[in-house]
Design the sequence.
């Protein structure tokens, strides 16, 4: 139990200042913050960037980077005498095989993408604007107008859940509690996804303006931007934009902006795990309800939005919700689709919601080789076969097809890819990134990875009960990570049964 | 208005109190919902997922331990989905610990194996052999952590934090490696740990156990529990001596279950572990008095007390009452301390009386 005066929210920063987990560091941080030493050790060992402070260069072992022979890259680094470790996806799928040197201060190269057009909500290729018209318009017209425009726009959360934004905003306005927070989720970590990185690098003012609108509308006095630690100077780009906006006199001085580094945990992209991290705890998702709009950061009403969702705001308020809605094909708005893997020009392409893979591939100069399968929304979405090339890619349609749009990290696989290997690669990712809190995810991810390894190594019966395990993971895990972690395997079994020695797709339950 | 105070669980209309969970409301009505990571004294973790129930209107099953009841909530009787989840959860946990019951219960009983027998499983799955670090160099004298039996339910860490307010142990590392650790993986004796052993009592799988009992080698279920009152201080904690009848030996001490005795499931380091005096060869089992040669020899209580009273009276006669002083032991109860001061003040008219734990 920590003393009342303990300052737990400081411990992640203090651990970082101290150079990460080494013997004695927990004691030092305990003296600084009064948080029990064991708790600090528990936190330090949870986050990979703190737990392995001297690991050197991180080499990405996400699916896209595996396709680009990241193991070869790692051997090369080692041959050069540089120490390196494999890491889960680094959010640089356009640069595969990707690596990140924590000592390297240079900025990430910008990814290719769609040409500028007035019919795009974010329009990454357009020059960023310091006009802040939406913010001033929102100040003039008030919160009801803002939420009304959001509702008219039909904007849904771009982080992956696809939840209608206006419902969250209205729920916070309805709270009697006036201590409220706005949190930017820039902890982009879904393998195959690198859109939020691009938004911040190319259009940081859209993000700053969106956050300022949210704080103004919801009467929040603090804004927290939680930016992925492995993104290096991406956070700096956001801070520089804030300075410029301040200098231009756009921002209300009554709001405090906090920039927080992620410390290497995919799970902190889950909004309640992110809140735990902000509060100086192990990033283990909370049980819901209560939802963050009611009890979020410090137990107070909190708006958490993904970078892309926030970046849509300025356009919506400037040009109207109806305009945004009209941009979409099957669902409102445009969407940033990240294309990587076996494509000729990996990048971030903005297209109407409901664009098909065929159209996206045309934007990215086509498949490298012959299309076999693809993930529509990162590792969590599993795989779809080439025959789904004309399926509209939106939240509702893909959900109905048993997969998800998620963060729209589209990973393209050509016919050289072995689906057992692909499913195993994703299983390794989920096992590595499970927070370990609930048993279905912590144990289930191990079972699936081990079963796939045994199958690969020649045991034909190794997959006997994986469907039962997958069922339970989907039903009983606390958060979306565990609920989705079996999808790569079950979808590969469904669409490519012959690669698993099955004549047809396996049926459901085998439980007695 | 009254209908707002009711919830329906398994078809029974139950009243509930503000803030109550589904589990609490169900238990009051004697409706059984299995739990593995729950203890009424601790905040729910919702980690084991065996208590999931179907609530009308919710897509996902909800943890009974952590979900608060709300007016007119309907919790369905165990559906095939709920039953399947219980069996799934049990197979899953068994794959993460020692599956064979006899091996698993080499020392402490396993609630996990109890539940598996009661509810059945989804089949026996290949053990995952989680890479949970232990603390092999932890040389504390009493508590053994065995990571191969741990299911990372966090009962022990929550107990250490919320009941003892000690926070010596924590969930550490992440994912499959998630384990119970101390700061920098040190020995418990080099932490804030008070060696109360509460972590052993709350552990549902015997991952936390008594070193001495492990060395003795008989499982708890083969020992006989003898209820007695701890005599280390005046609190009056109830303890269960776990006796190996064949060897006539106290192998370990456990606490009666929470909610049944004054100590509510808790013990301190002395009550739980300081019991080796029982069988110590130097233990005094009779009063000793000195013979004429000045040697200590065993005698009867009557004779010993007689000797003491005579000696006290003779000191008082010879040197006055204030030449005497009375000190009682910290192991005495309040009543015994009262009698001691009565003896001093009323018997010998002296205020020279003290108790060794007083300041």
Sequence:
């Amino acid at each position: 139990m920590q003393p009342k005066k303990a300052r737990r929210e400081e411990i992640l920063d203090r651990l970082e200042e101290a150079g990460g987990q080494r013997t004695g560091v927990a004691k030092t941080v305990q003296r600084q913050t009064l948080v029990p030493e064991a708790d600090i050790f528990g936190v330090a060992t949870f986050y990979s960037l703190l737990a392995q402070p001297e690991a050197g260069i991180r080499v990405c072992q996400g699916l896209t980077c595996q396709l680009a022979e990241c193991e070869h890259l790692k051997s090369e680094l080692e041959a050069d005498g540089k120490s390196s470790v494999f890491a889960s996806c680094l959010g640089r799928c356009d640069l595969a095989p990707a690596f990140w040197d924590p000592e390297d201060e240079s900025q990430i190269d910008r990814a290719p993408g769609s040409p500028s057009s007035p019919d795009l909500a974010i329009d990454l290729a357009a020059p960023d604007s310091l006009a802040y018209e939406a913010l001033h318009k929102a100040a003039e017209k008030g919160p009801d107008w803002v939420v009304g425009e959001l509702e008219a726009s039909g904007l849904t959360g771009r982080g992956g859940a696809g939840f209608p934004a206006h419902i969250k905003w209205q729920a916070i306005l309805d709270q009697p509690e006036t201590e409220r927070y706005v949190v930017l989720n820039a902890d982009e970590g879904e393998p195959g996804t690198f859109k939020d990185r691009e938004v911040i690098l190319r259009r940081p003012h859209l993000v700053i303006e969106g956050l300022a609108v949210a704080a103004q509308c919801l009467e929040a006095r603090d804004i927290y931007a939680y930016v992925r630690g492995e993104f290096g100077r991406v956070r700096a780009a956001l801070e520089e934009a804030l300075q410029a906006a301040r200098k231009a006199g756009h921002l209300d001085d009554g709001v405090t902006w906090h920039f927080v580094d992620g410390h290497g945990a995919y799970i902190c992209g889950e909004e309640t795990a992110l809140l735990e991290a902000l509060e100086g705890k192990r990033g283990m998702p909370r049980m819901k309800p209560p939802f963050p709009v009611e009890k979020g950061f410090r137990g107070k009403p909190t708006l958490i939005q993904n970078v892309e969702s926030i970046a849509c705001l300025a356009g919506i308020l400037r040009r109207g919700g109806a305009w945004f809605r009209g941009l979409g094909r099957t669902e409102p708005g445009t969407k940033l689709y990240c294309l990587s893997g076996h494509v000729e020009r990996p990048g971030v392409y903005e297209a109407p919601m409901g664009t098909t893979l065929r159209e996206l591939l045309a934007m990215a100069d086509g498949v490298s080789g012959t299309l076999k399968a693809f993930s529509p929304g990162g590792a969590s979405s599993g795989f779809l076969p080439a025959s789904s090339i004309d399926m509209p890619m939106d939240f509702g349609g893909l959900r109905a097809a048993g997969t998800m749009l998620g963060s729209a990290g589209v990973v393209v696989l050509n016919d050289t890819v072995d689906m057992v290997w692909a499913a195993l690669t994703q299983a390794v990712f989920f096992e590595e990134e499970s927070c370990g809190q609930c048993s279905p995810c912590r144990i289930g991810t191990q079972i699936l990875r081990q079963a796939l390894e045994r199958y690969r190594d020649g045991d034909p019966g190794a997959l006997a009960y994986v469907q039962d395990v997958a069922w339970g993971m989907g039903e009983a895990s606390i958060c979306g990570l565990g609920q989705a972690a079996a999808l790569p395997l079950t979808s590969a079994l469904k669409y490519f049964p012959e690669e698993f020695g099955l004549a047809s797709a396996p049926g459901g339950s085998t439980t007695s | 208005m009254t209908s707002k105070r009711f919830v329906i669980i398994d078809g029974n209309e139950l009243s509930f109190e503000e803030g109550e969970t589904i589990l609490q409301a169900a238990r009051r009505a004697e409706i059984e919902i299995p739990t593995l990571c729950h203890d009424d004294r601790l905040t729910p973790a919702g980690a084991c997922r065996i208590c999931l129930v179907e609530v009308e209107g919710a897509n996902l099953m909800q943890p009974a331990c952590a979900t608060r009841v709300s007016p007119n909530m309907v919790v369905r009787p165990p559906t095939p989905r709920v039953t399947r989840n219980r069996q799934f959860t049990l197979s899953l946990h068994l794959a993460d610990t020692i599956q064979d019951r006899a091996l698993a219960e080499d020392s402490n009983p396993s609630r996990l194996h109890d539940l598996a027998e009661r509810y059945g499983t989804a089949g026996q799955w290949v053990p995952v052999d989680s890479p949970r670090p232990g603390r092999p160099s932890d040389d504390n004298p009493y508590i053994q952590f065995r990571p191969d039996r741990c299911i990372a339910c966090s009962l022990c860490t929550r107990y250490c934090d919320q009941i003892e307010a000690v926070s010596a142990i924590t969930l550490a590392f992440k994912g499959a490696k998630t384990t119970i650790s101390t700061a920098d993986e040190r020995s418990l004796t080099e932490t804030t740990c008070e060696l109360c052993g509460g972590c052993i009592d709350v552990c549902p799988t015997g991952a936390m156990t008594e070193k001495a009992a492990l060395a003795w080698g008989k499982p708890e279920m083969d020992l006989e529990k003898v209820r007695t009152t701890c005599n280390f201080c005046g609190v009056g904690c109830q303890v269960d001596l776990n006796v190996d009848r064949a060897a006539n030996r106290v192998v370990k001490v456990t606490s009666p279950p929470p909610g049944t005795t004054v100590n509510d499931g808790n013990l301190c380091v002395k009550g739980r572990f300081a019991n080796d005096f029982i069988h110590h060869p130097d233990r005094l089992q009779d009063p000793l008095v000195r013979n004429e040669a000045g040697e200590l020899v065993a005698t009867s209580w009557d004779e010993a007390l007689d000797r003491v009273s005579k000696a006290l009276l003779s000191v008082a006669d010879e040197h006055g009452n204030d030449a005497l002083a009375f000190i009682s032991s910290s192991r005495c109860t309040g009543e015994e301390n009262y009698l001691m001061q009565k003896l001093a003040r009323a018997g010998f008219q002296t205020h020279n009386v003290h108790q060794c734990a007083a300041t």
Summary: The domain at 331-414 of chain A is CATH 3.10.20.600 (Ubiquitin-like (UB roll)).
